[in-house]
Amino acid sequence: MRDQEPAPLDAERRLSTKEAAELLGVKPETVYAYVSRGQLTSRRVTGGRGSTFDAREVEALARRNRRESAGSSASGGELSVRTRITLIESDRYYYRGVDAVDLAMRHTYEEVAEWLWTGRMRPGSTFTAPAASVTVARRAVDALPEHAAPTDLLRVATIAAATADPLRFDLSEDAVLGTARTLIPTLVAALPPAWRDRRDEGPLAHRLWTRLSVHQDPDEASLRALDTALALLVDHDLAASTLAVRVAASARAHAYAAVSAGLGVIEGPLHGAASGLAHRLLRDVLDQGDAAPVIADELRAGRRIPGLGHRLYQGEDPRARTLFALLEQIPRAEPALLAARDIVETTARHAPLHANVDLALAVLTTSCGMPPTAGETIFAVARTAGWIAHALEEYGERPLRMRPSGLYTGPKPPQPLPE
Questions:
Q1: How many angstroms separate the CA atoms of 353 and 385, rounded?
Q2: Are 332 and 366 in contact (CB under 8 A)?
Q3: Are 310 and 88 in contact (CB under 8 A)?
Q4: DSSP 309
Q5: What's the half-sphere exposure (Cβ side, CA atoms, 13 Å) at 126?
Q6: Structure pTM?
Q7: Residues 345, 322, 278, CA angle at the centre, nearest 5°?
Q8: How far apart are CA 234 and CA 389, in angstroms?
Q9: What whole-number distance in Å separates Cα of residue 142 and Cα of residue 170?
């Protein structure tokens, strides 16, 4: 039988600490912990030592706690977060209910980002970086050593851009959207150019191309593939880096700090850096002309084959399938596409794994004259828009809700003081 909600309380009534604790089903000490976290407000009793609490506010918190408790028990112990941004099911994924592949094929990266942020399409959207932000970000990036990784550059550029924005602590929706529309182009503008001239105008994909590719005159098919890759990678539900962003936003960190948290996580080899591993694997196959010995060496060394399989898809990653179709329209991509197919077919003899987006990014970066780290850069720039969307959503939730309880497994206290 479904539990019934308690009868609504008198909205004008003030509750004592004991009454609030009973309604919430917690100890009185926990009530004051809710106050310290900003989840409840208290008022001192006139002439007394105790506190009182707004009945309506306590009732609302009790309802939230009951809903979240039910949600966590139904998820098999895994953390689950309510979100209206991305849904992944049946080997497809959707941005605010609209097929993400269809959006990426019909709209630019900037337009898809706007849809993710606002739920409204803004045709012709372009992002412009303020001169002051670009100047300070470039100065910070130029000070890094040459071997700095892409995420190092982007993280430093993000922090530098934050220092140039006196309004960064404004967490209103309009202010955060303003930050998003200027931070993303600032990150691209701060990257060192692949050739002498930087391009700081036009679609974001065109500007990013000048930072990644040695080809100075890209064809439309290549630029479209890069722009579509950015749009496909905008978001992918609660990936590890996105969860880090939401934790930061839950603590009311500003948008720059939340993005910086995401960049700190995306650098891992199991996340944003995976495309670089797939790029190197693909280059080895192209150099040897056969995937079999390369795959054998990887397995002999005890390494998993990058670019294959995804825990959220039973079949082929829809992002990979879309990018492969676009790359087939680029003649110079044919050798890399054949090498990628050889990798999948060779591995399928023992494990039926499909290509994921990392392998597709490897084909894109290899065939477009980009370095192994280019896929990581594309991934991070694209995902910044998704992180902003999740930060915005989290700012609308109660603060510090992303605070799981630790399950202590250490020595039972009290233990003697160490010698």
A1: 29
A2: no
A3: no
A4: -
A5: 10
A6: 0.81
A7: 50
A8: 10
A9: 29
Residues 235, 256: Cα–Cα separation, whole Å: 17
Nearest to 321 by CA among 371, 353, 360, 347: 360
Task: Select from 84, 141, 150, 143 the least CA-distant residue to 118.
Answer: 84
Residues 298, 288: contact at Cβ < 8 Å?
no
Q: What is the pLDDT of residues 361-397, one digit of tens each?
A: 999 999 999 999 999 999 999 999 999 999 999 999 9
Distance CA 142, CA 136 (A): 10
pLDDT level of residue 34 (50, 70, 90 thresholds):
confident
Provide the pLDDT confidence category of residue 31 given band limits of 50, 70 and 90.
confident
Contact 226, 208 (CB under 8 A): yes
Summarised one tens digit per residue, pLDDT across range 140-178 is 999 999 999 999 999 999 999 999 999 999 999 999 999
On whether the CB atoms of residues 309 and 317 are closer than 8 A, the answer is no
Amino acid at 159: I
Q: If you search the block for the tokens 């960064």, which residue do you land on?
A: 168
pLDDT digits (tens, 9 = 90+) for 234-263: 999 999 999 999 999 999 999 999 999 999
The sheet with strand 14-16 has its strands ordered as 14-16, 51-54, 42-44
| Structure-token pair, residue 53 | 């609490």
Q: Calculate mean pLDDT across residues 223-243.
A: 97
Alpha carbons 327 and 363: distance in angstroms, whole number? 8
DSSP-assigned beta bridge partners for residue 88: 93
Q: What is the DSSP string of 18-66?
A: HHHHHHHTS-HHHHHHHHHTTS--EEEPTTSS-EEEEHHHHHHHHHHHH
